[in-house]
Write a structure and sequence with these properties.
422 residues; alpha/beta; TIM Barrel; binds flavin mononucleotide; flavoprotein; oxidoreductase; FMN; Luciferase-like_sf; monooxygenase
């Protein structure tokens, strides 16, 4: 590889590992944001390109038909809003990209355009928007809709939504947009340093990939395994080429949860404990799967594959991956041996894991990784340190991760590579 990877960190603004060992002295202090601000500073110290703040706005009832398992497992609730946290992070950091998640199905476009422009100014050109269309009908009800639109229609609406917000960000005095779904007459958003946020997206279905290829500067994805990773990236690049664009204008990152140890055997034992069906994490993972697929897995036989006729109006590509993985096996077996949202199993010493990341990027031709603490684990400083103090320096020594930030805005830095000290 001749340029360092792009590295991001995906995080929820919700309880940290409050009820687990290694929770730290202040596990209940997550609500004041200080844990996350500290985390952002640590990411910046390690020259991570950006932090991505996840969002959803529901207490799901998908598992068991009520909220009991959800609160027990703390998968999607309780949760704070990521936007004020992004503002706080941007005041305490100076180089890290700060990406917030906002849904095109839940925010009016003029509100979103202004909030994103304001965050861009507060961060002096380090702002990004993770564009999602949401998949929970409960979220729709919170904003006065009966239910969400059908999966592919959400992306058609999102496409028009991006045309509206692009006009708002372009700095004309006022806009007069009259489309199929949106009519917006109004003042534009204030001009911001990057003009528009770095656009991030995670579409995995054909409609989602069409949308991502059309708009995204940065794609975060979880195709599982080298072949699927390559196929996904090729699919995005083909789409961009077909519409006459330059495929290198968009970076494709893969979500991973590295599990690190002093030795490979120690890391493997850690993985077995973390994924064990007997561990506390297991409920979190099943509930999470219910949330993203809107399928009540409490009524399913966990010792069987996911039925091939299971469908969802939620995150289709993630359900399809789980169906494929459980074929000829069972949900309990699959979740017992691998992460539910990880493109590659990265288990071992920092050197072993760096080897695997290097090899994957060489074969896939991808642009980097989105790190996150998956496997049902809640984030702790200990996990953060293992990655930032163990794995990242190993990548830096090999010239695979940057050890200094380039000048410029988040978008300019993404477009350019920085030679590392290697
Ligand atoms: C890395 C990653 C992060 C995501 N973050 C969010 C999020 O914060 N909020 C949300 O509602 N959906 C989130 N999603 C779901 C995606 O927006 C999308 O629905 C999903 O990848 C399935 O793709 P599809 O909609 O094309 O089927 C995320 C997905 C991935 C892979």
């Amino acid at each position: 590889m001749n340029e360092p990877m792009t590295l991001g960190w995906f995080v929820n603004y919700m309880p940290t590992g409050w009820n687990r060992p290694w929770a730290g002295p202040d596990p209940r202090a997550w609500t004041d944001g200080s844990f996350y601000v500290d985390m952002a500073k640590a990411l910046e110290r390690s020259c991570i390109d950006f932090v991505m703040l996840e969002d959803s706005s529901v207490v799901p009832e998908n598992f068991g038909g009520d909220m009991v398992a959800e609160f027990k497992a703390t998968v999607k609730a309780p949760k704070h809003d990521p936007l004020p946290l992004a503002a706080a992070i941007s005041q305490e950091t100076s180089r890290l990209g700060v990406v917030t998640t906002m849904s095109t199905s839940l925010y009016p476009p003029d509100r979103l355009a202004r909030m994103q422009a304001t965050l861009d100014e507060l961060s002096d050109g380090r702002n990004g928007w993770n564009i999602v269309t949401s998949f929970e009908d409960l979220a729709a009800r919170n904003v006065g809709l009966e239910k969400l639109w059908e999966h592919d229609e959400r992306y058609l609406r999102a496409d028009e939504y991006l045309r509206v917000t692009s006009e708002m960000w372009s700095g004309t005095d006022g806009i007069d947009f009259d489309g199929r779904y949106y009519r917006v007459n109004g003042p534009s958003a204030p001009m911001s340093r990057q003009e528009r946020p770095v656009l991030c997206q995670a579409g995995g279905s054909p409609a989602g990939m069409d949308f991502a290829a059309e708009w995204a500067d940065l794609i975060v994805s979880v195709p599982v395994g080298i072949d699927a990773m390559k196929k996904y990236r090729d699919g995005i690049r083909e789409r961009i080429e077909r519409s006459g664009g330059d495929p290198d204008r968009c970076r494709v990152l893969y979500m991973v949860t590295p599990i690190l140890g002093e030795t490979d055997a120690e890391a493997a034992a850690k993985r077995d404990r973390m994924y064990s069906p007997e561990s506390d994490n297991f409920l979190r993972r099943i509930v999470q799967l219910s949330n993203i697929s809107e399928i009540d897995f409490s009524t399913y036989d966990l010792d069987a594959p996911i039925p091939s006729d299971a469908t969802t109006n939620g995150a289709q590509s993630i359900l399809d991956t789980m169906k494929r993985l459980t074929e000829g096996s069972s949900l309990r077996q699959v979740l017992g041996s691998t992460g539910e949202s990880t493109s590659l199993d990265l288990v071992g010493t920092p050197a072993t894991v760096a080897d695997r990341m290097e090899e994957a990027m060489e074969i896939v031709g991808g642009d980097g990784f989105l790190l996150f603490h998956g496997g049902g684990g809640l984030i702790t400083r200990r996990y953060l340190d293992e990655v930032l103090d163990g794995l990242v320096p190993e990548l830096q020594r090999r010239g695979l991760a940057r050890n200094e930030y380039a000048e410029g805005t988040f978008r300019e830095r993404l477009a350019r590579s920085v030679p590392t000290g290697g």
